[in-house]
Write a structure and sequence with these properties.
- α3 crosses α13 and α6 packs across α10.
- This protein has a single domain, classed as Thiolase/Chalcone synthase (Peroxisomal Thiolase, Chain A, domain 1), CATH 3.40.47.
- By secondary structure, it is α/β, with parallel strands linked by helices.
- A hairpin with a 3-residue loop joins β10 and β11.
- The chain contains 13 helices and eleven strands.
Length: 381
């Protein structure tokens, strides 16, 4: 099998950018990545790209150039970016091509996501009961987890406090103002147990990653992080996921756990080897649950981990070092690639004020989307 490297990365800042479409933000990220690598768009052999609300990614060729390359659109909920990366990784690993790009962008309208039951193969009653409202679903899922494993509301608040503190240090983040724990806990309640500071917001932004085989990277004089693993999995029976039409009393294995296990096996490493991790944090509870689902701790251990500061930038396992979705917002097509971008920056030692100490070697990213799809990638310096 061919070794795959991420040889360049580009990012358009997340948040709100009046005057630029989501597609234009995607083009910005691609051009930045190309300039970083000293490449031309005509050098790129293939692309995988995704967007949820800002048009088909392949239409960016109108601005980048009509070169006839293979360009595949990806749509996989919030796991779109992770899925685009998996496609690019697999294409190079198979030997089909040796230089390509994964790109994701979005530009969501203000307000909460507004999914329709029929679009997900669900009856109208599923929406009428409020289960299509993601704020309500995630709150219900987190309340159940808190009751089963002794997680407190204060711990939810500490996750958000950390996210905003990291966002202050991150040039591409949307929310760049610290919010203290008291303000987070006493803010207006959106859906019990979450206050307004515990949810991410739909937003805008774009990320592009250029991937190459090791041989092609050497011939171009480029170095880059090794993409040791990329895996995507969907929900098995018994998992309790957003837009899932049924719930078993006994909770089954999550798609995040399946993707995590596959990625660790592929990379030949374990959770204990990871130096920095980016985990899906649609809300504070997601980061907590995903710590266990991805194998970094046991269910319930998060309470002590977070109280002890183990997930902070200077902790034993820094999590969401750029502020995650809570500070950056979530443009669906770009979010999973932002996580990998952050890990690449960390492994290169180029993260500035948010740099993880100790010369990190392995970075882990995990993205989760409806109706229960997870993508995991592991990169190595």
């Amino acid at each position: 099998m061919t070794e795959v490297r991420i040889v360049a990365a580009g990012i358009h800042p997340f948040g709100r950018t009046p005057g630029l479409t989501g597609l234009q933000q995607g083009v910005f990220a691609v051009r930045q990545a190309l300039a970083t690598a000293g490449l031309d768009w005509r050098d790129i052999q293939f692309a995988y790209g995704g967007s949820d609300a800002a048009g088909n990614a392949d239409t960016m060729v109108s601005e980048l150039g009509l070169t006839g390359l293979q360009f595949i659109n990806v749509a996989n909920g919030c796991a779109t970016g992770g899925s685009a990366l998996f496609g690019a990784y697999s294409t190079i690993e198979s030997g089909e091509f040796d230089l390509g790009i994964a790109v994701g962008f979005d530009k969501h309208p203000r307000g909460a996501f507004d999914p329709k039951p029929a679009e997900w193969g669900l009856p109208d009653w599923y929406g009428e009961t409020g289960l299509m409202l993601t704020t309500q679903f995630f709150a219900m899922k987190t309340r159940r987890y808190m009751a089963e494993h002794g997680i407190t509301v204060e711990t939810l608040g500490r996750v958000a406090e950390k996210a905003f503190a990291n966002g202050v240090l991150t040039p591409h983040a949307w929310r760049r103002e610290a919010v203290n724990l008291d303000a987070i806990l006493n803010a207006p309640l959106v859906s019990d147990p979450f206050t307004k500071f515990m949810f991410c917001s739909p937003g805008e932004g774009a990320v592009a990653l250029i991937l190459a085989s090791e041989k092609r990277a050497r011939s171009l004089g480029l170095d880059g992080a090794k993409l040791r693993a990329a895996a995507v999995r969907s929900r098995p029976p018994g998992s309790f996921e957003v837009f899932s039409p049924a719930l078993d009393i006994a909770r089954g294995v999550s798609p995040s756990t399946l993707a995590s296990r596959a990625a660790f096996e592929m990379a030949g490493v374990g959770p204990e080897d990871i130096d920095v991790a980016q985990l899906q944090d649609t809300e504070s509870g997601a980061e907590i649950m995903h710590m266990a689902e991805n194998g970094f701790c046991a269910d319930g251990d998060q309470e002590a981990w977070i109280a002890d500061g183990r997930t902070r930038i200077d902790g034993a396992l820094p999590v969401n070092t750029d502020g995650g979705c809570l500070a950056c917002g979530e443009p669906i097509g770009a979010s999973g690639l932002r996580q990998v971008y952050e890990n690449v920056v960390q492994l290169r030692g180029q993260a500035g004020a948010r740099q993880v100490p100790g010369d990190p070697r392995l970075g882990y990213s995990h993205v989760y989307g409806a109706p229960g799809v997870s993508g995991v990638a592991i990169v190595e310096r």
